[in-house]
């Protein structure tokens, strides 16, 4: 009876080990999730250094939103409109409509949902106005 339990434990261990080896082989052959390819903005330089914006863009946007909505202070430096105008994709004209777009690519990679564009436009004003013309 004891030998059956030991044999069962050994078999389960071997099965788990084999499953782990196959899992490692798949990971090695497929690789990690590829990092998003981020197209540069259309301007000469971002309003802040790239590393800073990658880490802090949400805080910057929220601070700007609070100053605009609650205090009535509107400045172009950290406006979402400015970001969209500079970072809309050349092929799609948007920042969050398709998988490869500027905002969408990073947020999909990080598994973070974007709710900014439930109210705000994902395309620059000129592109939206041009799309409406017959």
Strand content: under 5%
Uncertain runs with pLDDT below 50, 5 residues or more?
Answer: 20-29
Derived structural class = mainly alpha
By DSSP, the count of extended strands is: 0
| Overall pLDDT confidence | 79
- Number of helical segments with 4 or more residues: 5
User: Helical percent range?
Assistant: 55-70%
Q: How many domains in all?
A: 2
Shape: extended
Distance between the termini: 83 Å
What is the H/E order?
Answer: HHHHH
Largest sheet: none
Q: Radius of gyration, rounded?
A: 24 Å
Write the layout of secondary structure elements.
Elements: H1 2-30, H2 50-71, H3 80-87, H4 102-109, H5 125-132
Task: Characterise the protein shown here.
This protein has 134 residues and is mainly α. It has two domains: 1-32; 50-132, no CATH class. Helices cover 56% and strands 0% of the residues. The protein contains five helices and no strands. The longest helix has 29 residues, at 2-30. It is extended, with a radius of gyration of 24 Å. 13% of the residues are buried. Mean pLDDT is 79; it is low at 20-29.
Key descriptive features of the protein:
mainly alpha; 2 domains; extended
Structure described in brief:
This protein has 134 residues and is mainly alpha-helical. The protein has helices at residues 2-30, 50-71, 80-87, 102-109, 125-132. The radius of gyration is 24 Å and the shape is extended.
